[in-house]
Amino acid sequence: MKRFFTVFVMIAVVGTVMVSSCKKKPKPLSEIIGRVWSAQLIKHGSSVVYTKGAATNPTPGYLNFRLDLSSPTSATLKEWDGNTFTGQWEVQETTAGNTLILKNLTPQPTGTNGTIQFTINSATETEFVMTRTSGSQKTGGTINNYTLVSP
């Protein structure tokens, strides 16, 4: 009986090691969001201003919104008003949360000194939810929330 128990424990340990070593490591956040994103649902403050596919939208320009993070360092942001900004992007991952930083944007978006930061609320390879960390002068100083999809 003792021998059976010893063999059983050894099989259990080896099986656990094999299963845990076969688990895939999760992709880095920068790899998950490193693609082109378009608007699905946009809120200026608490007001919904754009819903993809809706018959009418208060801010229809979001139909052309694009956030291109497909290059490991270069970013292009095409805003709802048609303005396009280019620069770099990076992700800062901390225990307090993750932040997307668009920096060295040219031309500089009004009131940003060339940098816009977003809190990353959630991210998968098909949906990316983020909240701007400071008010947007273009939208009256509101803190905007973006639910984006990868087309």
Automatic annotation (TrEMBL):
Task: Give the protein's recorded name.
Answer: Lipocalin-like domain-containing protein
